[in-house]
Amino acid sequence: MTVNYEPKFRHVDWVDNVDRVRAAGDNGFNDRFHSLENEFDLIAGVVDDVGKELDRLGRAPTAQEVNTTLAPTLTTLGDRWDHVLGGAVKPPGATQASGFMAVQLPQGVTILRLAIFGRKDSGNLEVGLRRQSIAAGATTELIVSISAPNGSFTGPPKGAPPGAISRVDNDQFRYYLTAELDTAPGNAVVRLDAFQITHIAS
After folding, report:
1. Do residues 111 and 199 lie in contact, with contact meaning Cβ atoms separated by under 8 Å?
2. Which domain holds residue 44?
3. Which domain of life is it from (predicted)?
4. What percent of the chain lies above the pLDDT cut of 90?
5. Does residue 36 sit in the same domain as residue 73?
6. pLDDT tens for residues 94-104?
7. Alpha helices of the chain — where are they, by DSSP H?
8. Strand partners, 120
9. Neighbouring-strand partners of residue 141
10. 34 and 83 housed in the same domain
11. Do 51 and 84 sit in the same domain of this protein?
12. Count of domains in the chain?
């Protein structure tokens, strides 16, 4: 926004013994004072524009939701996941698989949702977003979890609970995803293509 001010009023000196003191006319007091009033109105308009611009600049930007999308890179917890380009799959003949992967999220953001993408023919597949204190021996805390349906799944997202558990505090906690599959037939296809965490600045 461009804000500028160009003065309009210019005083022309009265001359002793030449100009007559009068109220009316082009050079009268009324005309001069009305010109001053117009100048003050012009200044007031500029000050108002400056104030509005300062108010606009002082307002915090509207927080935007951000998606962090991750390819599964699961460290084995018991029975392994096999990895292919961009994803993780159940090994042929296996009936279960378990793994976890670290997640890096910006400090102070609030976790809103978790979504998972992939395909499952059969079995129970649970994906959880968790946090755990950096203190030795701390127990894990589940923030949000999703049970994958059979067939191809593109989401649907699961909302995280409100409150402190959903606010990222990297000074005190580590964050990670877990993917646990059981009771799957040996010939079933189970594939994880992506995890997506939606967060917003607090």
Report:
1. yes
2. 1-59
3. Bacteria
4. 65
5. no
6. 999 999 999 99
7. 29-58
8. 151, 190
9. 131
10. no
11. no
12. 2
